[in-house]
Amino acid sequence: MKYKIYTDGACSGNPGPGGWAAIILVNDKVQDMLSGNEKNTTNNQMELMAPIKAIEKFKKKSEISIFTDSTYVRDGITTWIKQWEKNGWKTTSKKPVKNKDLWKKLKILSSKHSIKWVWVKGHAHNKYNNLVDEIAQEAIKK
Hints:
Elements: E1 2-11, E2 16-26, E3 29-41, H1 43-56, E4 63-68, H2 71-86, H3 100-111, E5 114-119, H4 127-141
Parallel strand pairs: 1-4, 4-5
Antiparallel strand pairs: 1-2, 2-3
Helix pairs in contact: 1-3
């Protein structure tokens, strides 16, 4: 079975209260909607929490396409992470990688599945990206 997951994170202030959301689709039908929040976080942390929490729902190896409007998440997990690991979790400017714990967790979870990371334009005409954004915004208020 193939799955599609739309993810988003949001923050009111950066840092500040934040929310994340994920929508899991099977055959283009909503199977599950997840969300959560943190009292004091960053937008990037919430962008990372959304795919982490969604992937955690899958107990068996699955084929998943994850749609995100965050180039930080997509580029981080597909490209940058390899160099960070080689450099002892330092950036090219020799600074510690921010959110290292979340990146490590995302990598471990991702390695258990076949995942395609897809960037989508935020706040455009994408039904599920807009919906996941709304849910993440609502999660901040909870």
